[in-house]
Amino acid sequence: MAIQVETARRPLQGALTPPGDKSISHRALILGGLAHGESVLEGLLDAADTRATRLAMEQLGAVFTDTPDGVRVSGLGGRLSAPSDALNMGNSGTAMRLLAGVLAGQSFDSTLVGDASLSARPMNRVIRPLTAMGASIKATEVGTAPLHIHGRELRAIDYVSSVASAQIKSCVLLAGLYAKGVSRVREPMLSRDHTEKMLPLFGVDLPEPCAVVGGSELHGCRVRVPSDPSSAAFAAAAGLLVEGSRVRLNNVGLNVTRTGFYRALEAMGANVSQSSRSFWGQEPVGTLEISYVSDLQGIDLPAEWIPSMIDEFPVLMVLAAVARGTTRVRGAEELRVKESDRIDVMCTALRALGVSVRDYPDGFDIEGPAQFRSARVSGHNDHRCAMSLSLLGMVVPGSITVEGADYIETSYPGFVHDMQSLGAPIRSL
Length: 429
Ligand code: S3P
Hints:
With 429 residues, the chain is α/β, with parallel strands linked by helices.
């Protein structure tokens, strides 16, 4: 699939409720599937990534039913069945790394596979702590999937991660539920803490902010999934690209471990107003309103903001191309091991569109405002790169075509429709 976007001739206006949070949805499907009794999961993201997690939990024996109130899941109460086939995680690093933690502590063997992108992503970062807990996991020589997991009884770990990664942290915490003793994770900076916030909903009290007691039982509950701040970021950015726009985004998850992008927008000179704040479980939620400003400024991004906006760099790079001055990012080497090498994919596409960009091993400098030219660019089968690049079409003279956009299905199947509803001249080809 490709996406074609034309120059916007009128402001984007309106309100959206972006789709359910991907990270929270994965966790709700996993914890609901593991718990004793029934859970109701409201507002789950229904996209390729979360479908992979749901299917895997079904292969392990959990039963999911779609109802008008949400997805009901009859949990396994800790008794998972050995899957008869490999579990296919598709494009989803979260599904693979979190489920590796669960499966390491079971009394059966299992195999996790993924698509070409996922099969090239580093898995030693989870194999290392799981092996230290006593698990036996075989990967390729270079530490990539398929992962053959020989489940066994685990021992607790006090794990010091060198990367601020919620996937590593959550993998260890989930494995810790099946280990003897208290497992803890420390990380260099706080990454998204949805696992820690969701476990208490399922009746698991954490003895410390990032620790679990092995053998804790999960009990079914109701989870309300907020709209994904990472998906909301595209409409927010669109509002800042097209003169005169005003965009409202409802029920957006405002967990501070996720809102770095909105902080960066404010630092660039945008007005991001928050209202109707409440809590869904332990997750803060609210309405965001973003209006166009004519004088967006480039920024030197503080490295400590990176974990809280790790998925928003492609869209930040798009805004950096229209902002005045240099946007400078360093310390973001994790971008090279996402669904694509996002520094490379975005810098290549931005250059083709006429933007002045310098790339570094751990970041980039982008000089704005660019003198854009029309081009065909590729999202390289990375959902966030494809969606981000498509937005630029609205400010490029003529139109742009973004190829390799099929993977938008992984996190935001309704992206084109939602953008059209705000008045964006965008269509799928
Ligand atoms: C995620 C954590 C982040 C993020 C990913 C989702 C999660 O990855 O990039 O899209 O749900 O835990 P890392 O933990 O590897 O940074």
